[in-house]
Each structure stands twice: as C-alpha cells, then as structure tokens.
C-alpha cells in the first residue's frame, strides 16, 4: 500500500485552527501592505506601525509555516520546515532592525546581526526548495528538465547582471571584509532565489495542482523584486513607505502557504504527464527578455548579452533533441508495459489449452469418450476466450471498446463464476483461497464467453493485488443480478477510484514494476458489462476489508426473480 503523501491531521490543532491562524497573519500583512502602499498613515503612525507590525507579521508567517510542516510526512515535512525557518530568519532581521530603531533609538549598524539573519534566510529557503518532493523522472525527462532550468538560469543571471548586479557588486578598499561580502550576498541571494523559482516551476509535482508551490513562487518573486528596488532606492528609502508594503504582501503570502500545507491534495493519476505550457513559459520568458535586450544593443553589456544568448540557443537546440529521445523512451516504455500485460492476459487460456491437449495426446485411449468430449469442449471454449482477449487487446489500444458486440444467451450464473474460478486457478497457484457463494439457478441473459472474461479479469486483479483470500457472492433481486468479487488486499485509494477505469491506468501501482499488469483489465471488464446493459463499480469490501468490484446485470425475463 502506498505511503500517504497528503497532509495529515495537525495533532491537537484542527484544520480550522490552522486556517484562522494563517489567515489572521496573512490578513494583517495584506492590510499593512496596502496601507503602506497607499500612504494612509500619518508619519508618526507609519513609523510605529511599520516597526511593530513588520517583525510580528514576518516572524509569525515563518513560524506558522515551519509548524504547519509537521502536519506532513517524509521529505515534504523537512522541506516546508526549512522554508519556514528561512522566512523566520528574515523576520528576526526585521525584529533586530526595529529594536535598534524604536527601543535603542540608534542607527542600525551595517553590517550587523540584522544583516546576518537577512543573508541567512536566502540559503535556508533555497535548501528547502531543493528538498521539496517531486515525481521521479525518466532519464531523458530529467535531462530535458535540467536543460530548461539551466537555460532559464543563464537568462536570469544575464538579465540580473545587466539590470542591477553590475551596478551593485563592487569592491571598496575602505570597506571591511564582512561589509564587502554582505554587499555581494544581498543581490546574489535574490538572483539565486529567482533561479530556484525557475527550477521549482519546471520540475513535475506529485500533485495535480499544487497551490502551495504557486503561492511560494509568487512570494519569492515579490520579495526579490522588492529587494532590487531597495538596492536602487537605498539612499532615498523611507521606513514604512510603499516599498515596505510590497515586502508585507510577500510575508502575507508565506502565511497563506502555512495553511495550504495542512490541506490534503490529489496526487497525479498517471505515471507520465507532459510539461504544461506555463512550466515552459517560466524559463523561456526569461530567455525572451534576454533576446529583447540583445536586440536593444546595450553597448556596455553587449558581450554578456551575446555570450548568454549563444549559450541559451545551444541549450534550446540540445533540449529539442533530448525531448525527441524522451518521447521515444516513453513510447518504448508503454510498448513494453503492453507486451508484458498481453503475455499475462494470454497465459491462463494458453496454459489450459496446452494442458488439456497434452492430456488427450498422451492418454487418448485411457480417457472415456464422455470425458474426451468435455476436454475438447473446454479446449474450444478456451480458444474462443483467447480469441476474445486478442480482439479486446486490439480494441483497447485503438480506444474502441465502446463498439464491443455481444451475443447474449441464457446461462446459469453459478456455472459462469465456477468456470472463471477454474481458469484463474493457475494464477492463484494455491496461495490464494477462493470461495464462492453463488447459488445455482440464477439465470442471466449474457454472452457466456464475454461474461466469463469479465469475472476472469476481476479474479485476476484480486489475485495480483489482494493477499490470500478472495470471496465471490451472487444474488438476484427483483430487478437485477448482483455479483461481487471481494479481496483482502489494501484496496484502491480514494483518489484513484475514478482513474482505474481508464486505459493503462494502474492507480497506486502505476510505478510498480514487480506486480504484473498494465491497466487494461478493468476497462475491458467495464466495456463488456456495459455492452450487456449492466454496470460495474468499485467499493471498499465489507466482507474482507480490501477491494470489491460489484457487477450488476439485468434479470433474464424468462426467469422469475429469486428472493435475495
């Protein structure tokens, strides 16, 4: 059974508690941010509000995010905790600034403890971003993602150098060693954060939509932009001005992440998902900006622009070649899965045909004529079943299962179930106990070969994904016949209950290379049952605690209803 990756209950704190705590901090940050941007406070009010609200909101946002991390498990826990600690470092820097300004009424020393915490926040957040879990990629997919991120990183670095790094990284012999490095680390830290956002965007998340990553990217970009503006306005910076309002909105976003981390999310349903347009837009938007600057012919930075543009062009060309190989690898992987599935689907009828044919060949004279007829009939039925499987495999690859034709005749339900049980006996291999409670005399109007195939598919799945017991029960009501196949396995996780009916979808076993199967048994069973105007559904098993698949078929009109 898969390891849960969604959020868990936050100990004694309910999700409502997390909601109000996070939203209170975020709301305070948004209100203060808007107030600073609009300048609605008086000069004195702005001074006191900024120097008290700033450290409270920033530290609280980081601590809430760090605490919320412990509602998750595994790698995600330490990733979000580290990011929360990094935000708290920034908050402690704000607090030290406020202590010097308000309590001590002194000029904030530079460099000082405030700068230590400010600078420490950048690598701490960066480490947390790299720790965030993501879907394990294939060889060429991983290389393609690396090329995308590298191209975006080169473009961002070149743009940053052209726009602000060149003017803000300099060495002054009159400054101390620590002052020199603080001057360098501030702007470089922002560039590294922007590159981390690109890496965050191009990696494939394990969730269908991860709002936490979206808000995290927005918060980091807002903070980096505010830092760049601060570097340009250092001489004219006003405490509690509109720039502080932008910072406050960034801290508010971090508080929102704290709540989102505690919320459960849906995992992706398929093993492979192609990159989305917005993921490609993030790194290549930076590339487009770089090329625009190149066309502008900025003489002072022409060599930087030309070098970066040349590197990006080379990476884009290589990336296209890698993308082609990635698609080829995906097709080959799907082909191998289909071949493996076909071999397992065909093994059961082929084994029966081979065994009975060998028995007749070696002991023809000793086998009574009546048994000869039964064995030959069984071989004939298995051959028809083999033909049906082959046809369905062709149809499922062409996505034409909805055109399946059936030839219904009246048959006894118990005989159909018993026939399916005998056909999967080799797969069970004595390690799985199969019991049946299907009374004789329940007539159904079905294509016997096709309906046997349905039960074989369900029993095969139960053998593969169950533990040691399978139970089949059947009953007839006034309007329908119901057959349920139970197993004692882990069951189907709720998030996959709809996806398992899709072609090539294996739900929680989508990355399982040990257990055979490629996700076509259930789609075939569904198509065959619906061709009989019936229905099939998944339910957690009340009988054995695992999975149960419920098949409902119309009652044969020729028979009277049997009491349930």
Protein architecture, described:
The protein has 564 residues and is of the alpha+beta class. Among the domains are: 15-134 and 205-265; 400-554, 2-Layer Sandwich (Heat Shock Protein 90), CATH 3.30.565.10. It is 62% helix and 8% strand. The chain contains 15 helices and seven strands. It has helices at residues 15-38, 43-68, 74-103, 113-131, 139-168, 177-202, 211-232, 242-261, 277-295, 302-362, 369-397, 413-423, 425-428, 448-465, 521-531, and strands at residues 409-412, 433-437, 443-446, 469-476, 480-487, 535-540, 547-554. The strands form two sheets. The protein has a five-stranded mixed beta sheet. A two-stranded antiparallel ribbon has the order 1-3. Helix 4 packs parallel to helix 6 (177-202) and helix 5 (139-168) packs antiparallel against helix 10 (302-362). The longest helix is centred in the middle third of the chain and has 61 residues, at 302-362.
């Amino acid at each position: 059974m898969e390891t849960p990756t969604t959020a868990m209950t936050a100990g004694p704190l309910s999700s409502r508690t997390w909601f109000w705590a996070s939203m209170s901090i975020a709301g305070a940050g948004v209100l203060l941010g808007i107030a600073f941007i609009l300048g609605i406070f008086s000069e004195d009010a702005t001074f006191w509000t900024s120097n008290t609200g700033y450290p409270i909101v920033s530290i609280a946002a980081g601590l809430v995010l760090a605490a919320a991390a412990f509602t998750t498990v595994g790698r995600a826990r330490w990733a979000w905790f580290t990011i929360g600690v990094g935000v708290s470092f920034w908050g402690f820097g704000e607090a030290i600034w406020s202590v010097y300004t308000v309590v001590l009424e002194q000029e904030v020393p530079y460099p000082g403890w405030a700068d230590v915490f400010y600078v420490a926040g950048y690598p701490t957040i960066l480490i947390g971003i790299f720790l965030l879990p993501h879907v394990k990629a294939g060889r060429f997919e991983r290389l393609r993602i690396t090329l995308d991120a590298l191209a975006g990183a080169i473009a961002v670095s070149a743009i940053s150098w052209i726009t602000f790094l060149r003017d803000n990284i300099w060495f002054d012999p009159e400054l101390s060693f620590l002052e020199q490095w603080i001057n360098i680390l501030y702007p470089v830290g922002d560039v590294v954060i922007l590159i981390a956002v690109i890496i965050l965007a191009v990696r494939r998340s394990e969730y269908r939509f991860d709002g936490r990553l979206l808000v995290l990217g927005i918060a980091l970009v807002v903070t980096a932009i505010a830092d760049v503006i601060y570097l340009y306005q250092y001489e004219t910076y006003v405490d509690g001005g509109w720039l502080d309002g932008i910072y406050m909105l960034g801290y508010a976003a971090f508080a929102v992440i704290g709540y989102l981390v505690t919320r459960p999310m849906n995992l992706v349903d398929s093993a492979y998902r192609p990159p989305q347009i917005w993921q490609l837009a993030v790194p290549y938007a930076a590339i487009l900006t770089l090329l625009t600057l190149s066309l502008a012919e900025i003489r002072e930075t022409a060599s930087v622009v030309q070098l970066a543009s040349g590197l990006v062009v080379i990476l884009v060309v290589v990336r296209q070649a890698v993308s082609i190989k990635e698609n080829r690898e995906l097709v080959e992987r799907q082909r191998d899965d289909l071949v493996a599935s076909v071999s397992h689907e065909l093994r059961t009828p082929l084994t029966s045909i081979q065994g009975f044919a060998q028995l007749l060949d070696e002991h023809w004279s000793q086998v009574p004529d009546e048994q000869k007829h039964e064995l030959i009939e069984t071989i004939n039925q298995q051959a028809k079943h083999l033909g049906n499987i082959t046809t369905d495999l062709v149809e499922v690859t062409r996505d034409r299962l909805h055109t399946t034709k059936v030839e219904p005749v009246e048959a006894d339900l118990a005989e159909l179930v018993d026939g399916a049980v005998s056909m999967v006996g080799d797969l069970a291999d004595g390690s799985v106990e199969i019991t049946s409670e299907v009374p004789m005399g329940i007539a159904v109007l079905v294509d016997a070969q096709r309906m046997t195939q349905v039960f074989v598919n369900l029993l095969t799945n139960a053998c593969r994904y169950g533990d040691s017991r399978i139970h089949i029960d059947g009953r007839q009501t006034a309007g329908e016949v119901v057959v349920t196949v139970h197993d004692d396995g882990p069951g189907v996780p709720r998030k996959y209950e709809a996806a398992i009916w899709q072609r090539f979808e294996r739900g929680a076993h989508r990355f399982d290379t040990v257990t055979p199967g490629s996700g076509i048994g259930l789609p075939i069973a569904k198509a065959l049952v619906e061709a009989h105007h019936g229905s099939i559904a998944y339910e957690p098993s009340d009988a054995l605690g695992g999975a149960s698949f419920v098949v409902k078929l119309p009652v044969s009109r020729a028979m009277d209803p049997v009491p349930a």
